# Entry
Amino acid sequence: MRALFYERFGETPTVSTLPDPTPSPSGVVVAVKATGLCRSDWHGWMGHDPDIRLPHVPGHELAGTIAAIGRDVRRFRIGDRVTVPFVSGCGHCHECRSGNQQVCEEQFQPGFTHWGSFAEYVAIDYADQNLVHLPDSMSYETAASLGCRFATSFRAVVDQGRLKGGEWLAVHGCGGVGLSAIMIGHALGANVVAIDIADDKLALARQLGATVAINSREVPDLVEAVREATGGGAHVSVDALGHPQTCFHSISNLRRRGRHVQVGLMLGEHATPAIPMARVIGHELEIYGSHGMQAWRYDAMLEMILSGKLAPEKLIGRHISLDEAALALTEMDSFKDSGISIIDGFV
# Structure
């Protein structure tokens, strides 16, 4: 198969011919039709993820068809159209048995614990527990865009943040995660404040349902600006970027008894951000992490998509080839692109 891989962290990846994967007894091999390019892939390439062993093939947001199947797989057949959460559960640990595969004690993560989907084929373990059947009407490109950012945002806003109609949602960072959260918050009937440093991304956020858009470089006090716009602070606030400053602002702009959800990864030198703990205690704030979404929760998200309440295809920006992905991956930390870049050319 053709695949993009790297042999050292921080070195430009190359596209080469590598051995085709084979399925484990509980797994399948998926012929990749589309895969998303995510900042988590950039973190992995930089060496921020201890699960990665070199050489490595990145990629964790994928959709395709089953090309090969293990002997123990029961719920899927060759040719099925599928996607998979970027965090997959083992099916037998305590967390999996409680329905929380997104924090599985022995989790499988394509593109991190195993070779990923920047390739013509990718092996997926624990298929019966983790694969999701795709509706025939959904394109592979749209399905690939769900795997990390959109599904993670759905769980962050709906399950962790418990956002309700009429509440205020603040979203810090208008990349793929943030724009997804804005669309989901708007669909739930909430009022959304979008925060970023780029006017083009804020314009897109407005198109997707943001009530208020704030360029954080143009206000003297961002926290006060959010509190003024929301009449006292956000009910729910999401750090969709993953930076000590956005994390601090997201917690600080909450109203009393508000809920902060940390979605953006805090790795490397950003792993231990300052938290305004006096405010957390005095205002009884709630702080949550959000790490992917279980396969069984996809039904609720897919139902909203098929009904037209959510339109994740609007978040797709560039369509690129596997050969173009090497440069796109190395430039991810510059935040040049709006929306989600999708790799859908593998030949």
Q: What stands out?
A: DSSP finds eleven helices and 15 strands in the chain. The chain has a mean pLDDT of 95. The CA atoms of residues 156 and 290 lie 5 Å apart.
